[in-house]
Design goal:
Elements: H1 12-20, H2 32-42, H3 45-59, E1 65-67, E2 70-72, H4 75-91
Antiparallel strand pairs: 1-2
Helix pairs in contact: 1-2, 1-3, 2-3, 3-4
């Protein structure tokens, strides 16, 4: 896993790392190769930032772990990254809905066996 961070923020990779807070090699969430792939697939720094935060959230969605003296709880980190995701979506003007919109309309609701459209129904089935 390669890790680089240009403190001058002179590269798109450094901008993504800066925006997601992944600036220290020790404990880094993202490899350079992954960020580079996200920059290519998302087409912008903002898109790559959002995709990176979503990826990190998937990594933090592991169940909490407790064994004797060791306890690992990802809940607070998840909450922090969920807030960061919303903040960065606003900052980069990116919708978090992933382009999904749904509408529905209902008209002439009747069951086929209800006789609602049959004017000859006399009340006896």
């Amino acid at each position: 896993m390669a890790f680089t961070f240009d403190t001058s923020l002179g590269t798109d990779l450094a901008l993504v790392r800066f925006n997601i807070g992944d600036t220290a090699e020790e404990g880094a969430y993202m490899a350079d190769e992954t960020i580079t792939a996200l920059l290519a697939s998302e087409g912008s720094v903002g898109g790559a930032v959002i995709a990176s935060i979503r990826y990190i959230l998937t990594q933090l969605s592991s169940p909490n772990f407790k064994k004797d003296w060791l306890s690992v709880d990802f809940e607070k980190a998840r909450i922090g990254f969920e807030k960061l995701l919303k903040d960065k979506a606003v900052e980069f003007d990116i919708s978090l809905s992933r382009g999904i919109s749904m509408t529905s309309s209902i008209s002439n609701v009747s069951r086929a066996d209800s006789y609602q459209t049959d004017n000859t129904y006399d009340g006896n089935p």
